[in-house]
Amino acid sequence: AQLYILYILLYFLHFVLTQLRNRRSTMKYIKTNYTILDKFLDAVKTHPDKPFILFREQTFTYQEADALSSRAARVLLQSGQLREGDTVALMLANEPMFVWLWLGLVKIGCSAAFLNYNIRSKSLLHCFHRTSAKTLVAAVELQDAVEEVLPSLLEQQVRVYLLTDTCQITGVESFKDKMSRVSPEPLAKDLRSHLTLQSPATYIYTSGTTAAMITHGKLWAMSFLQHLSGVNSRDVFYVSLPLYHSTGFISVTGAIERGITVALRSKFSTSQFWEDCRKYNVTVIQYIGETMRYLCNTPRKLDDRNHRVRLAIGNGIRADVWREFNNRFGNIDIKEFYGATEGNLLLMNYFGKVGAVGRLGVLTKMLSSYAVIKYDLDKEEPLRDLSGFCIEADKGEPGLLVSKITARTPFSGYAGDLQQSEKKKLHNVFEKGDMFFNTGDLLSIDADNFIYFQDRVGDTFRWKGENVATTEVADVITLADCIREANVYGVKVAGHEGRTGMAAVTLRDGNKFNSTALYRHVENLLPAYARPRFVRIQNSLATTGTYKLKKAELVQEGFDPNLISDPLYFLDEKKKNYVPLTVDIFNDVTSGQIKI
């Protein structure tokens, strides 16, 4: 107890000083519309030769990054298609060009939409059009995905670039050769004079095709995460998570805020993770729960503690993995946080309390008006008292986390989706006329006021580090010839973070379940992480009194053939088919013998 009091006092002092500094900075930024780009350009002046991006065997200094982003901006500007405030869709994996393109777009007063490079076909087109983009820039290794939707893009007069020196595809232009022919000199600030902190900086897809608008002001708030975690100007930050997600992207913008070096990897690799940390002298790593578990599952090595990593920042780590990680790889300070890309709340566990995402205190309640409220899992809605107001959950009771929407803690909503934006708002929560952001997450607060993530509710679940929108997966499944209706939900699998996809389906009259056709269907239209691993055939799908599909009971029953009499199927990637889910397969999946 005394130790926690000391932690709280130290945290209080750190938090107050940080808030004062951030408030002064924020007021300055608001008055001058000072963006992350402006911070980057100041860093170029302050330390032009300091390494900014380390990638494979290449080193790019802040000055070189400035020149390359100016070249990228000029190529886009000289196309004659972009106007101030336009959006360009980027579809590429982690590489320095991702950063140059985003910086370049802000230099000319435009924004970027970060497409998930795993999506294809109709989902890709839907994501692209969400932000009204008229330009697409894609990596050369994604050429097949581009060609698949190219006729539709050209019909809409979209300008398409591939990051290559030459291109023979009709309607597609090369990009890198054009970069080599334009000037690296700074661009006139007038090109972005219209930008304010309320202007879109980027669009990030939070689940399926839902694009959250991130303003320049919001990006600033997200980019202070490293500072709040204790990152200093001498650190080297290792980024191996996708830049198209907020967790990966704000690691780069946070590095700009700190003026530090980023060691960037194209894709997370368990075998190369610590080798990279040693190679680049990494001191801070970024994680999600899955990456920490993967690292802990690798064979032990004598050099497991031979590294300079002192700090890990991320979310979703299980308590057992947390302990195992520290026991094996050294006493690394783990800063677990909770936040949503589109949300208006950030929680952080400063205290090292294993498993917690933060701690409820008077100060944090004053600065961020949030609450954990009672939630009816069957009806999938908050419980309300006789006056119609929500009820705060008891200590230890899982409840829905909500955060008040104010001018200081806004919710910008989703691009081109007013209905989904409104769905995230709760009205008249504690008093008439108030409005709260619905996180869609269940959390609990223990007797010591530590906050713990419990589960997700509603229409999304998380698997393999990706958010999956159940309604969008269901829409795809019902396009299969034999499927009449589909109710998609996430189920827990022992030894895995998050939930994997499962679909309860009914068949069209006169049709049998065509397992092979369904496998080909989901393989063609859904990324691997969104494909349902389990299928349950039912005679009818249960609904609520308002005809909403019931999921709570299905989630609870899971995929155990010992308990479920309905026919069950398992997605077998080796056989490229949905095969009957036997007790033996169930046991192999739950024991880890079959990897999913």
TrEMBL record:
GO cellular component: endoplasmic reticulum membrane; plasma membrane
Keywords assigned by UniProt, alphabetized: Cell membrane, Fatty acid metabolism, Ligase, Lipid metabolism, Lipid transport, Membrane, Nucleotide-binding, Transmembrane, Transmembrane helix, Transport
Boundaries of every AMP-binding enzyme C-terminal domain copy: 473-547
Domain AMP-dependent synthetase/ligase: 42-349
Known EC number: 6.2.1.3
Annotated compartments: Cell membrane
S-adenosyl-L-methionine listed as a keyword: no
Ranges in coiled-coil conformation: none
Protein origin, superkingdom: Eukaryota
Transmembrane feature ranges: 6-22, 98-117
Membrane topology of the entry: Multi-pass membrane protein
Identification of the protein by name: long-chain-fatty-acid--CoA ligase
Organism whose genome encodes this protein: Cynoglossus semilaevis
